[in-house]
Amino acid sequence: LPFEQKNKNNYIPMEANLFNGVLISSVVVNKIGFPRPELFIRGDEVEYTERMKKNKIKFGTAINCYFYHPSDRNERYKILFGLLNARDAKNDFKNYYLFRNKALFFKEKKQLWLVPLDSIRYAYYFLIYKKFDMHGFLLWIKATKDGLNGKLGRHPIY
């Protein structure tokens, strides 16, 4: 029997934290390819998960397995009275790729209507919540512009 049928109480179907202690079958890689290297560091797992779902590949998380990966809870901030969350790694390298790849996904998924929402989110976060953090806001603008323009791969600054 497949793993998910034997372990219904210890398995979450169609949920995964890819590339953090995960095993991916060569059958999956042969069908949908490798992760996109130009997305490495932030968002690559989101794009790969979407490809698996699009190709109707079954996957999931065995919750009784242990592995160590640092939490990203300290990167998440509730803003606008808890209506929105903003992500901030407090690290230009990680933030650039997070913001750039998110904008790229909006474009690729034909969800450009989300860009104005993201601009409200990060304008509020950097200019109000972080009291005029112009460096952070300008990084968000640059990274978002690069994502929308399809500028992928390693940025020369990082």
Q: What secondary-structure arrangement, pairings included, does this model have?
A:
Layout: H1 3-6, E1 11-13, H2 26-32, H3 44-54, E2 60-62, E3 76-79, E4 84-87, H4 92-108, H5 114-129, H6 134-148
Antiparallel strand pairs: 1-2, 3-4
Helix pairs in contact: 4-6, 5-6
Biggest β-sheet strands, sense, barrel: 2 strands, antiparallel
> Radius of gyration in whole Å, from Cα?
18 Å
Class by helix and strand content?
mainly alpha
How many E-type strands? 4
Order of helices and strands: HEHHEEEHHH
Backbone shape: globular
Termini distance? 46 Å
The mean pLDDT is 87
Unreliably modeled segments: none
What's the helix count?
6
* Estimated share of beta-strand residues: 5-15%
Write out the strand line-up for the largest beta sheet, numbering strands in chain order: 1-2
Summarize the amount of helix as a percent range: 40-55%
Report on the structure:
The strands form two sheets. Strands 1-2 form a two-stranded antiparallel ribbon. Strands 3-4 form a two-stranded antiparallel ribbon. The longest helix is centred in the middle third of the chain and has 17 residues, at 92-108. The chain is built from six helices and four strands, in the order H-E-H-H-E-E-E-H-H-H. The protein starts with a helix and ends in a 10-residue tail after the last helix. The model has no long low-confidence stretch (mean pLDDT 87). 44% of the residues lie in helices and 9% in strands. The protein has 158 residues and is mostly helical. A hairpin with a 4-residue loop joins strand 3 and strand 4 (84-87).
